[in-house]
Amino acid sequence: MIFFAFYKLSMMGGADLFALLILGLANARVQPLLFGGLSEVGLEPLVVVLYASVSIVITGVLNLIRNLRHTKGLPFSVRLLLSMTGKRIKVRDFVNSKFLFPLTEVDSQGEKRIRLSFSIDEDDREWRDKYRELMMEGKLSGEDIIWVAWGVPVLPFIFLGYLLSIIIGIPIS
């Protein structure tokens, strides 16, 4: 039920929800190689989500360390969120990418503004086309730097969490 709420709040995509549902039905009880306490009582899907969440947090912290120096002059909360979730990239690289969503929005006059999130319903192709058009109009240069966020599903992190749960379990008995 919690995962369905995440899906309805656009915090998780449909494929992620489906994967967790299938995982819960197919692997309600798995005996890990090392620590199997919570898996024995049927909490395997929660262990997977725990490990997936930890891997997402680790990725965010690594991004924070890498990007914080590029956010000087912004309010502290914006600096933290942008540094954890964003990546700086040249516009020409962005228009030739996939699965990236701009956090730097550019209007038709060439004015830039930072947003801190995007909707899972957005189409990255439309954004690339818009920025390509802005480059052709001369409002953006291919060398301009913008902030983008990776629009990857949570699925790779769920997969990593699943592998860790099979190998490690959770060291609580």
From TrEMBL:
<dbReference type="GO" id="GO:0005886">
    <property type="term" value="C:plasma membrane"/>
</dbReference>
<keyword id="KW-1133">Transmembrane helix</keyword>
<feature type="transmembrane region" description="Helical">
    <location>
        <begin position="46"/>
        <end position="65"/>
    </location>
</feature>
<feature type="domain" description="Preflagellin peptidase C-terminal">
    <location>
        <begin position="79"/>
        <end position="169"/>
    </location>
</feature>
<dbReference type="Pfam" id="PF06847">
    <property type="entry name" value="Arc_PepC_II"/>
</dbReference>
<keyword id="KW-0812">Transmembrane</keyword>
<dbReference type="InterPro" id="IPR009655">
    <property type="entry name" value="Preflagellin_peptidase_C"/>
</dbReference>
<feature type="transmembrane region" description="Helical">
    <location>
        <begin position="145"/>
        <end position="172"/>
    </location>
</feature>
<protein>
    <submittedName>
        <fullName>Peptidase A24 C-terminus Type II</fullName>
    </submittedName>
</protein>
<keyword id="KW-1003">Cell membrane</keyword>
<dbReference type="InterPro" id="IPR052218">
    <property type="entry name" value="Preflagellin_Peptidase"/>
</dbReference>
<keyword id="KW-0472">Membrane</keyword>
